[in-house]
Amino acid sequence: MSHYYFEKIKRLHALAEIGLEYNTIPYDVERYQEIRDICLEMLEKITRTPVADIIPVIEERNGYRTPKVDVRAVVFNDNDEILLVQEKADNLWALPGGWTDIAYSPAEVAEKECMEEAGLKVKATRLLAIMDKQKQNMPPAFEYVYKIFLLCKKESDTLSPGSETCDVAWFNENALPALSLPRNNEAQLKMIFEYKRGERTDPYFD
């Protein structure tokens, strides 16, 4: 599957959704509906995923497509090791985090996810990066995603996995485990360690 065409089809589908939301002219509505259906058919073909499974992921109830937001907590211990959790979904490792929730700020999401996934109490202290997932050499996804990386200070020491994780541990920069690439990649972890060493100071953004 071509990542380029996958992203363009998603963009075309989003434009069709916006057209359906704000247009009341019957002729135009029919055309936007046809474009939307063609996009869904193409996505089904190139991803081998049924349309019924695609629609709940990529269509907003209000018709106006906006990016989803993923928050990742960056936590170091006194040995300059980084906290990672092993995801049950793929048995690979990632920074604690997940989708933002209504009524929670990004900082609160980072703190909540650390407690839920790693059993660790933390306090978000600094913004490190806001990334466009599609510009970060990450696997293609139906959602268009912005990723927020927040530095957090640990306020407890006990680690314990949660309902979505099977393990949690501290890792040295030169001994990282296999990463869950839909969640984070090696380049992002490298950048995070550059912040830790003081080689980067200003927040990164796409």
What would you note in describing this structure?
The protein has 5 helices and 8 strands. By secondary structure, the chain is of the alpha/beta class. Strand 2 and strand 3 form a beta hairpin. The strands form 2 sheets. Strands 4-1-6-5-8 form a 5-stranded mixed beta sheet, covered by helices on one side. The model has no long low-confidence stretch (mean pLDDT 93). 36% of the residues lie in helices and 24% in strands. The chain has 2 domains: 3-58, no CATH class; 68-205, Alpha-Beta Complex (Nucleoside Triphosphate Pyrophosphohydrolase). Residues 66-195 form the Nudix hydrolase domain. This is ADP-ribose pyrophosphatase. Its cofactor is Mg(2+).
Order of helices and strands: HHHEEEEHEEEHE
Helix- and strand-based class?
Answer: alpha/beta
Strand order of the largest sheet: 4-1-6-5-8
CATH architecture name of the largest domain: Alpha-Beta Complex
Parts with pLDDT < 50 across at least 5 consecutive residues: none
Mean pLDDT: 93
List keywords for this structure.
206 residues; 5 helices; Nucleoside Triphosphate Pyrophosphohydrolase; 3-stranded antiparallel β-sheet; alpha/beta; NUDIX_hydrolase-like_dom_sf; 5-stranded mixed β-sheet; 2 domains; UDP-X_N; hydrolase
